[in-house]
Amino acid sequence: MTEAVDAHLDRAVDSVRRHLGNQARAEALGLRLDLTQEPTGLNYQYYTPSLSMVLTGRKRSIIGEYDQRWGREHFLITPVGLPVMAGVVELDAQGEFLSAIWRLDPVIVTEVAGAMARTAGAVPAEPARLGTWTPQLADAVARLLGLLDTPEDIPVLAPLLTREVVLRLLQTEQAPRLLVAVETTHSGIVVRAIEALNESIEKPWSLARLGAAVGSSSSTLARRFKQVTGMTPLHYLKRLRLGEARRRMVVLGESAGQAATAVGYLSASHFSRDYRAAYGTTPAADATLVRARLRSATA
């Protein structure tokens, strides 16, 4: 990380620290700010289209076959809705992990991309899963987060800075991931497939059945889906099912068998095997532990 990037991100950290308790102001900028003061286990999270930033500390993110530990030297773009396993693995010298997630608007991404000069015929390479900050991007993000200090400026400056941040993202090596997600000729089938899986999580989906539902061949859907999400459609579905099953056991109090059936598992042993691989323990034991943590957190 260059000194310039580090200095810009320090400004962003200062702005975020001053306004951690002001979620309404953060939401006006499309931000979610989080402070954690102890490492966490891996947890299921569903990321909507967003730019994720670790400002202090380090986290672990598992997206498909990509299992990475990262901190403020990188950023993560999730251009479409993605089921992710993630957790805090390291705190900073003050014993804190600070992060910010900024909502990406596909309409604005399309608008900015359309106004940019593009190299005719260029075929972008598949980028790394994590992006590397540039001084220009870090500066734009720091100024956007700086609007937390001046809420009266948000209506005028936020739309301008939003477009600048998107522009700077499109000038990084992550541009292909953003562009694939917003160009309908490339991603329309992926977006429709994601919507179909989310809307009917319990259906007995196969790659062929999903391809037929979105008007695509199995091979094209598999290739495009992996390019955008980093996982196969069926791996994506498994993550969705396990996350929803966990929610049903913890929040609704369902048994492992009830939750497994509700999300489309036909075999209890298959469900238990997948669940243990994802969460490191049995469904029942995990649900009991999570409920206990929630009780102690609200006590």
TrEMBL record:
The keyword Transcription applies. Residues 191-289 form the HTH araC/xylS-type domain. It comes from the Bacteria. InterPro entries: Homeodomain-like_sf, HTH_AraC, Tscrpt_reg_HTH_AraC_N. Keywords: Transcription, Transcription regulation. PANTHER family: ARAC-FAMILY TRANSCRIPTIONAL REGULATOR (PTHR43436), TRANSCRIPTIONAL REGULATORY PROTEIN (PTHR43436:SF1). This is AraC-like DNA-binding protein. It comes from Promicromonospora iranensis.
